[in-house]
Amino acid sequence: MLRLRNTLSRTLEEFKPLDGNTVRMYACGPTVYDYGHIGNFRTFVSVDVLHRYLKYLGYQVRHIMNITDIEDKIIRGMLTERKSLEEFTGFYSQEFLKDCDALNIQRPEVMPYATKHLPQMIEIMRRLSDNGHTYQSDGSLYFSISSFPGYGKLSGLKLEGNLAGARVDVDEYEKADARDFVLWKAAKEEGEPRWPSPFGEGRPGWHLECSAMSMEYLGESFDIHCGGVDLVFPHHENEIAQSEGATGKPFVRFWVHTEFLLVEGQKMSKSKGNYYTVRQLIEQGHSPMAIRYLLLSVPYRTQLNFMLDGLGGAETALEGLRNIRRRVADFDGAVGSHPRVLEILTRAREGFEAGMNDDLNTSKALAALFEFRRDLNTAMDAGEFGADDRAGVLELLERIDSVLGVLGEEQELMLDPEIEAKIEERNSARRSRDFKLADQIRGELAERGIILEDTPQGTKWKRR
Length: 464
Ligand code: AMP
Ligand code: ZN
Description:
This protein is α/β, with parallel strands linked by helices. 45% of the residues lie in helices and 16% in strands. The protein has helices at 38-56, 72-81, 85-102, 118-130, 206-218, 232-247, 278-283, 288-296, 308-329, 339-357, 362-381, 390-404, 416-431, 435-447, and strands spanning 3-6, 11-14, 22-27, 60-65, 134-137, 140-143, 167-168, 180-186, 202-204, 222-228, 252-258, 261-263, 266-267, 304-305, 450-455, 458-463. The strands form five sheets. Strands 5, 6, 7, 8 and 9 form a five-stranded mixed β-sheet that branches. It has a four-stranded parallel β-sheet with strand order 4-3-10-11, sandwiched between helices. Helix 4 (118-130) packs across helix 6, helix 8 (288-296) crosses helix 9 and helix 10 (339-357) runs antiparallel to helix 11. Residues 28, 210, 235 line the site of zinc ion (ZN).
């Protein structure tokens, strides 16, 4: 039985989908104005682990993750770089998907773009206006938070003392600045993207898109909504107000929020400049699987203090797990099976599931996996392992990895001439200024434990 901590009820609740065996979940996706940093990917990896664990439990999962391709920072970026909206956001969306692939994040069923859902947003605004939740000012349309009695229920915000009619039209603001928020912004700046609507020419505020896309693909009430904790207020609070204000129905049952990834006690963020992107870490020779492992090794509701050293530890942990998998796969001793192995298998599966069922406690689940490794090594050393035990162990490892996604396929050790051929291929790509291919080759090598160092005497390599 899976229990999840629900931000809305502030308690641990047993999870059951609304509709039979299908889980409908929505996660706020990236704002595509730059490369994502590993703080962002901590949230995306945790959502991926939830998605995968729901499948492990036998549910059908319908998972939607939007791409925010219109927003204040995007407009600033496209205007500065003198690019069209599609050109600017198209590039960063593709790069985002590449990072997701590197981190073995499974694709959600639908990844809708905000700018492709203007009619759905306009429909919500129309319903909100009919229900008396909006007003117009300076050509923009605002949501009046005092018209929605449930405002504040997710974030615990108290509205007393709030200035009636005070407004914000920026996409991000703090709790202390709780105000009526903008649904539709009148076009102001020259060159700013704009669309026609019954409320005048303009563009949607950030919050509206997630109400529109989640309800479009999942219905007016659905099971799970995820995102990082910084989205609780105002983004998710505003989504609830818009969705419930329009439909009169409860919007989401479980709100699941991932805690921050910190660097020296501070949130990793673009504006603080204290960030690493996935590609930077790969270029430094860290394997994407170690990055994923590190990101998921701390339970999602606990802050994770990121340190580069941690990646070395993650690499060693993964090595240990791959070694036991190899040792079992290569076992060529006597046929037969041992009751001890059966016990070990049961304990490992139960331990893993107990950890995951406890609000996705990945550190407990990983502890069960390391105990599994230790017990298997002990049994094998003691000769209490037979060739018929192999299949069960490999199957359980594969099943556990269908959730964690960190072990990958068994890879052959790369031989020196193969490595040197790859380096030559990379050099030739660099000579013809195809840096994308060159980086890709470096990434492939890093993934297989080969680290490159470019020196004035040429490229040197070593095994990790
Ligand atoms: P953005 O692209 O800024 O909209 O953010 C994408 C996702 O990353 C959102 O769910 C954010 O809540 C999340 N996020 C941003 N910074 C961090 C961080 N330092 N740690 C964990 N999640 C984060
Ligand atoms: Zn959202």
